[in-house]
């Protein structure tokens, strides 16, 4: 490996360490706790070194959001390339969102911040248009009438984000204790396997689309 190649690799590794540190700070506290100084302290670098890689905190957050979208898009593309029917593809696309959100809840919340989503619409217009076309095609394959496809996609998105926001904002063990205190063991039992609960809800929703 040449000296130039080594420097490029080291720069990329340092950049990724900065992004990873920001995510960990946000997970332990929140995004307000993420500053250039707190990142520098976490990786035992000086603030000027962080500034060599990012202009400011907003630049860091933008990079994290971009990585999140790239990760989800790669997973989506993998699902869409599989020899499955439209129903199963939509189930698996739903699980991609769930798996990402439950493994990286702080990044998911950052990506779905209303103000940041408005910025993303401008920055990712082409990618979002492509994704929408793919969703239209899948829901049409399920037999949803053309004029109702937008509503079906909106309902699907609301179901996904509703479940995810509930589970990632309320820790399952805390919810279970609260429901037990209310003497509702059946409801409390649902929090023992939220992934299966979520998948069943998605499958029921898609099954019922045939009535639209």
TrEMBL record:
InterPro entries with a match to the protein in the record: Homeodomain-like_sf, HTH-type_Tx_Regulator, HTH_TetR
Protein keywords: DNA-binding
The keyword Glycoprotein belongs to this UniProt entry's keyword annotation: no
Gene Ontology molecular function terms on file: DNA binding
Pfam families per UniProt: TetR_N
Residues annotated as domain HTH tetR-type: 12-72
Feature: DNA-binding region: 35-54
Top-level taxonomic group: Bacteria
Protein name, per record: TetR family transcriptional regulator
Protein's organism: Spirosoma oryzae
Lineage: Bacteria, Pseudomonadati, Bacteroidota, Cytophagia, Cytophagales
């Amino acid at each position: 490996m040449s000296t130039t190649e080594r420097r490029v690799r080291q720069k990329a590794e340092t950049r990724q360490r900065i992004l990873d540190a920001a995510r960990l700070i946000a997970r332990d506290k929140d995004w307000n706790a993420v500053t250039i100084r707190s990142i520098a302290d976490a990786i035992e670098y000086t603030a000027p070194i962080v500034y060599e890689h990012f202009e400011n905190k907003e630049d860091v957050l933008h990079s994290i959001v971009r990585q999140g979208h790239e990760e989800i898009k790669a997973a989506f593309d993998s699902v869409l390339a599989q020899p499955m029917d439209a129903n199963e593809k939509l189930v698996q696309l739903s699980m991609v969102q769930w798996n990402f959100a439950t493994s990286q809840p702080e990044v998911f919340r950052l990506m779905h911040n209303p103000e940041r989503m408005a910025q993303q619409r401008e920055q990712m217009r082409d990618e979002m248009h492509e994704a929408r076309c793919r969703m239209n095609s899948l829901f049409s394959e399920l037999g949803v009438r053309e004029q109702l496809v937008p509503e079906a996609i909106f309902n699907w998105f609301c179901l996904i984000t509703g479940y995810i926001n509930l589970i990632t904002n309320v820790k399952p063990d805390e919810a279970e204790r609260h429901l037990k205190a209310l003497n509702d063991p059946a409801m409390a039992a649902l929090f023992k396997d939220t992934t299966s609960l979520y998948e069943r809800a998605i499958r029921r929703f898609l099954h019922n689309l045939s009535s639209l």
